[in-house]
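Reviewer has doubts. Consider these tokens.
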Amino acid sequence: MGNMHGDFIWYELLTPDPASAATFYGAVLGWTSRDAGGPTPGYGLFSTAEIAVAGFMAMPPGAAGAGMPPQWLGYVAVEDVDASVRSVLEAGGTQHMPPIDLAGIGRFALLADPQGAPFYVMRGATEDESSSFAPEKTGHCRWNELSTDDQPAALAFYGRVFGWEKGNAMPMGDLGEYRFISHRGVTLGAVMTTPPGGPRPGWRFYFGVADIDRAAEAIRSGGGAVQFGPDEVPGGLFIVVGTDPQGAPFAVVGPRNA
């Protein structure tokens, strides 16, 4: 059975220095990296010992000058890319890249929600099921977190476009609620309000690690920055929120073994 409409199926890093990024994430997450080959020259793959879970590529020429920062982007499966683009636009979103086809890969488009957070929609060329998002697996994405300046509007938008549902919420003081989102009975992550003076609306992805303290040290020693953590979250796991050496936001989640 392939992925269903609304599933997260892939993650992609846009970076000014792909070679350095490959070294950094290899040290932090244990990923190996290789060129994807095929119809995407210059596109790299991050893999666990078993499977490719994410991609990485150089930022397009002129992107930094146009205001695009280094960043991780998520791909969401859809039944029909063109219909989903129309749905996004009708719901107040924007299109950054129109639908295109890659032979053997699939059809996809780069969009943004009404608050400006970018994401891809994609229909794969095969019915193979992606495990890039796997909440229980080390090396895979385990949590998808949206920071936005209008939480109610964002929740309504993603509910309309992808069928995501609101779950329970945790209070965050002046920032309101940390609202969980679910799809087909699986908790995907959460939506939170961006703090005053914080970054632009966007997604942050939490990748699983086997030892949170080792991951935090690898972030620091590899030239990244730890902004928060290690801090315990429900379930007995710990998180670290930070940036890689090129400034792309990301996070890790896993146990404390010390």
Summary: The mean pLDDT is 93.
